């Protein structure tokens, strides 16, 4: 089988995969990404480059992905529907593929009202499900959304999407996962797991529908760095679920960072035992330097 | 109904300047949402006069967006309009433009912000319902419009941020996807949401066709 990307290959081979998030800088500075790339080298099979996450302007995901490629790391370019219409998104897919980007993750994107330009006009011409289907058809059928034909190389990309076991209504989140798979998602990265019990229940649903056979699921892990961060995750960040017990452990810890690290390590170990979980996606917000130790101690390093 | 809201009085005052001003309201939407009905027009007259601004007269049009009616009704006010430097509109944007076209030798001031097409839930409580997209999908979503009521206009929702039936963008706003879900759950038709909705055809919207 011809693999479209390294991530496609390792997931197809049934290995337990690690992906990690690289947040681009709030400035025109390739050096910041190169710095992160250096210490993250070997810690993950592929690296997500976020697309103006939380609607805050940063260096573009396309540029960030190319910078990673230049460092010989494999990027997963995130594409959010918030800021570009179908013309711009399809154009960026072609451009990114031509520059060698082989993994793309489609998301609808946080609303501008939560970011640093709340006065911006939100686009949302498409949603993530529609964007997945469009890129799949560009790749497999050689057509744009309008039905117009691509006249040159098709974008040979491996497609991913996000899923949130903690959003309401619970039942619809599985329906939505199914739709994303039908639309072309080949791998899934989930919202960060703190509530293990609910995640296990969600995975039960996923397996009962046979969805784990159709898609590779990478469970989200975000180490909590401080009590303040735990509070933010518990009370303010939409779509996250930090149970009281976890929050309590953070609050009572002498060294919250150490406790957060231990929690993340336990989470990874537990996630590895859940059938249908094919890897972990580590998002260490403002704490990327913790990833190498975490991966090593979880027994996932060195990665093949 | 077109829901509009009066601009802040200071903003109106700055735009009106020294006057003299003629005030225009509307007997339909602007009356229903308390922006520019008889009551608001008279209150505005008093408030401006209290600031020593000369108000030459006022009228509540029937409705302001009706060009022929406006021509007819304004005839009786020709003198008052002539004496005014500025025309203060307490109507939606459509009414403002009809009058701006009709009285093109006057400075026409928009005294209200037009917000949305929506429902009157209670007096002074309005909620957005329609985006005038030109391609109605309400049959698909049990009579709830995700284009207008989901801040991300998702056709394959909900997003990952809704919690407890509320929207992540505004905790006061019910998640429209939750509402659709509850209706479908009652009728045992949740699986109907598995159909992938294709990208919307915006060529049917008035973005490309501006008159009928």
CATH fold node name of chain A: TIM Barrel
CATH topology of the largest domain in chain B: Rossmann fold
Which structural class fits the helix and strand makeup of chain B? Answer: alpha/beta
List segments of chain B where confidence is low: pLDDT < 50 over at least 5 consecutive residues: none
Largest interface: A-B, 39 and 32 residues
- Strands of the widest sheet of chain A, in order across it, are 1-2-3-4-5-6-7-8
Residue share in helix of chain A: 40-55%
Task: Work out the count of structural domains of chain B.
Answer: 2
Radius of gyration of chain A: 18 Å
Taking pLDDT < 50 over at least 5 consecutive residues as the criterion, the unreliable ranges of chain A are none
Percentage beta strand of chain A: 5-15%
Number of helices of chain B: 8
CA radius of gyration of chain B? 21 Å
Domain count of chain A, please report it.
1
Oligomer: heterodimer
Order of helices and strands of chain A: HEHEHEHEHEHEHEHHHEH
Query: Within the largest sheet of chain B, what's the order of strands?
Result: 3-2-4-5
Structure description:
The complex is a heterodimer of chains A (304) and B (212). Chain A is α/β, with parallel strands linked by helices. Chain A has helices at residues 6-12, 30-40, 61-70, 86-98, 128-140, 170-183, 196-208, 227-236, 244-252, 256-272, 291-297; strands at residues 17-22, 46-49, 75-80, 103-107, 158-163, 187-192, 216-221, 277-282. Chain A has one domain (6-297): TIM Barrel (Alpha-Beta Barrel). In chain A, strands 1-2-3-4-5-6-7-8 form an eight-stranded parallel barrel, surrounded by seven helices. In chain A, helix 4 (86-98) links the parallel strand 3 and strand 4. In chain A, helix 5 runs parallel beside helix 6 (170-183) and helix 9 packs antiparallel against helix 10 (256-272). The longest helix of chain A has 17 residues, at 256-272. Chain A is globular. With 212 residues, chain B is of the alpha/beta class. Chain B has two domains: 2-115, 3-Layer(aba) Sandwich (Rossmann fold); 133-197, no CATH class. In chain B, 30% of the residues lie in helices and 20% in strands. Chain B has helices at 9-16, 29-32, 38-50, 67-74, 78-83, 93-102, 146-149, 176-186, and strands spanning 2-6, 21-26, 55-61, 86-89, 107-110, 112-122, 125-130. In chain B, the strands form two sheets. A four-stranded parallel sheet of chain B has the order 3-2-4-5, sandwiched between helices. Chain B has a three-stranded antiparallel sheet with strand order 1-6-7. Chain B starts with a strand and ends in a 26-residue tail after the last helix. The mean pLDDT of chain B is 94. The chains are: A alpha/beta (304), B alpha/beta (212).
